[in-house]
RNA sequence: GCGCUCCUAGCUCAGUUGGUUAGAGCGUUCGCCUCACACGCGAAAGGUCACAAGUUCGAAUCUUGUGGAGCGCACCA
């Protein structure tokens, strides 16, 4: 009996030692498993790429959940003898990382990015990203993630940069990437464009004004944009405005004097809303922009990139829109143009990272066109995104997210991929006068590179194949792609999953993964989101130190169905710490009672032939066999929450409460045949239980198994998963 | 407005294709330091499965409707 079993189980003292031993063995690397004869060279492969955590700081419980689920699948498949690869990596997360560092510099030194300059800022971000990276790696290891560190990738490293440039050029050559003046979401605070998905809508109470516009009354919540409005739009079928004809001119008195306006009839107008008449500001509204495009109308900029009014505003020029609003209303009132006002609640668009209020602007940007047929394939990118999910070549778990996915794709507009920030992949386009070079930097002098960087999702969209060495036709790419499972939170279904499908279908003409497993949010005990401001975050490192990573993993997994948010509390995790200790005590009992001390050395029962097991013992073996079969089935069908619960229940309430209790008289008895048979049985049941529990609680099971006489591999991690088809009696 | 999800024990949630007395964890009550474990053991209380109608031999599970909660997308002139 090893000394360690005499004390309660101590995860803190065990886990880091075990991880180091695994890492030392090299067996996280599937090639090493083949080399050491553990995996047959022709074994089928199983692969997952780790959704790369952002290098913006530390991991949170959501990451811990992701790691637990992925590691369960990886360990299960590895134990089944698959050539199993789990690729680690981190994401530079462009805008998120830059804004964290910028905020810090603003706070510490009261400087902005222009004070520092591009080079210096990038240096600072690089340092910060490296520190975050190291912290993240240590957290990944603490959670027990059996990642192949020899293949670690970063979205901004050399190989990935090569992939980004290659695909940018290929998409440009295919006519899918274009540069154009289009209306985009402009974040005046972050001084950059952002994509539709980076917008967070916030409810705002404001005033809705009715203004006299010639013979009409128009409604608006944004009088500060109205200076240049010279088109008045109504629905062609609106009987109230029948007398007005499309294209008709009218003269009217407006904010800064008399103007001429044109009547426009457009079906996009909601007759029920307000008065059914509106004026349009194409430069600062998506909808208005569309109307203007349809009718070929003029577009004028009213607000600058800092959120100040331009000279068109006359006396209000130079004012911030917020302060200008009240004054404009005052002027309208004096001029008798204010008809009425009412209170109004609407959603305003804000930037996710900076919480700046989005001001739509027309800007020259780079876009990916999603509705254009790709030459040679006769399909649009949108269709390429829809098809594999429709045909179930890609299966989404839980299934109902397919509908959400379709809904989103159908509403998808061209993807703006250029950002006016400095951290990230610089757009691989060079200009010299009217000339342009895409993808390849010209060697001659006189060329300058585009100042902008790419949306961070452009590079993470390549993740399943860029991590495997694409565009080189590597062995890894051939062997491990498409990957088997992509596991992530449902909140990035659109951001990331859709874009990976887009990129992979375009670049490789195949799917990036076969199954998408979406986990829910980890909330606090009261059901609130965990956040810095609430101070209700649970740090995986603290939790692991206090209760053990095994306990945290179980608490995150048991009963947690995919796609559903869960509540997490220290009490819950504590319960599974107790479970680890329970298992420890079971092991102590079995190891003590299943061996005989002779001359100071321990002997194990040689094991009876199967015929010596009593009918009851056959029954107990069959019971565990059934459990193994059910668990295998559950995991194959992505029900890890059920498999985890079953093994927990078996170990505590069957193995400990029933089998050990009923074994005590036999072990203390004088019938040596019965005793030895029972000793063999207990060792076998414990051994199999450890195997079944290992994917869920890798540390404590490994630690115990190392002391088992049934040990038949260097590590439990690479021992064989019970094969219920053959039966445990074999 | 379009779409999705949820409503099961005091709390948090399971319940896979409809099938015997509806489960778990935590909590509560009672009794136990029984030589594996007090990070434990034994026992107990606790549910008209939101509501209504329907399909069925049979519904927590399928259909429709009502009510409540949450989420996503779009729009907001």
Automatic annotation (TrEMBL):
GO terms for biological process: valyl-tRNA aminoacylation. Residues 18-435, 444-569 form the Aminoacyl-tRNA synthetase class Ia domain. Its EC number is 6.1.1.9. Keywords: Aminoacyl-tRNA synthetase, ATP-binding, Cytoplasm, Ligase, Nucleotide-binding, Protein biosynthesis. InterPro entries: aa-tRNA-synth_I_CS (IPR001412), aa-tRNA-synth_Ia (IPR002300), Anticodon_Ia_Val (IPR033705), M/V/L/I-tRNA-synth_anticd-bd (IPR013155), Rossmann-like_a/b/a_fold (IPR014729), tRNAsynth_Ia_anticodon-bd (IPR009080), Val/Leu/Ile-tRNA-synth_edit (IPR009008), Valyl-tRNA_ligase (IPR002303). GO terms for cellular component: cytosol. It is found in: Cytoplasm. Monomer. This is Valine--tRNA ligase. The lineage of its organism: Bacteria, Candidatus Kaiseribacteriota.
